[in-house]
Please model this.
Amino acid sequence: MINVSIVTYHTPEQQLRTITEILRQSEAVKHVEVIDNGQGINRGYGAAHNIAIRKTLEEGTPYHLVVNADIRFEPGILKELEKYMDEHPDAGSLMPRVIYPDGRLQYLCKLLPTPMDVFGRRFLPKKWNEKRNERFEMRQSGYDKVMNVPYLSGCFMLLRTEALKQCGIFDERFFMYPEDIDLTRRIHRHFQTVYYPHCTIVHDHAQGSYKSGKLLWIHMWNLCKYFTKWGWLFDKERTAFNKEAEQHYLTDK
Model:
């Protein structure tokens, strides 16, 4: 069974109604918890999810799904994803194929970022960074096979409870944005962090930090905290994880 957490912040009511109805219809879901960061203190994205994750750890529920309110999918998908996790005990986390509402693929399988990967794509002309960005987003992989990816998006994270017990939950030093990079790489040390393309979800990706100066500042500041934790120029684990991913998925295309 799967416990689910959704963190909201002035989220449109209909959007929240849609995702909760989908989860209600799924036979795999045990419990859904909505944490509203728009009421009272805004704890941050990871810290808010941790409230629900700690309950899952205490209960011993096998899986916990971290999902954005702007996600849609067929309710039966969760049973298929749960089945995959049951059959692959080395899988610590899983993200399905993610598309925009118009059907375009979202490139959410990534290598662990260098400072140039994240700051360059935000502040340099797109054509200057095109090849680097394609590599960073693992586009040569084709996104058509199951892959063990060092960085998966936090918009939909199906997490094995045993992996969370071993690797830890969200690092609450990150208010918003790089918490998914940090958690994925910690799980990736000991488990497979799986991209599973045989199920598809729809993500109404708003890319808030591209539209709001305040969110851009929050994004950049928290990325600085991420690189301070793991290393700016020198990060041996990043080098090793990225090399392995490239050898397996990017060199055969």
Notes: The first strand starts at residue 2 and ends at 8. Residues 213-230 form the longest helix (18 residues).
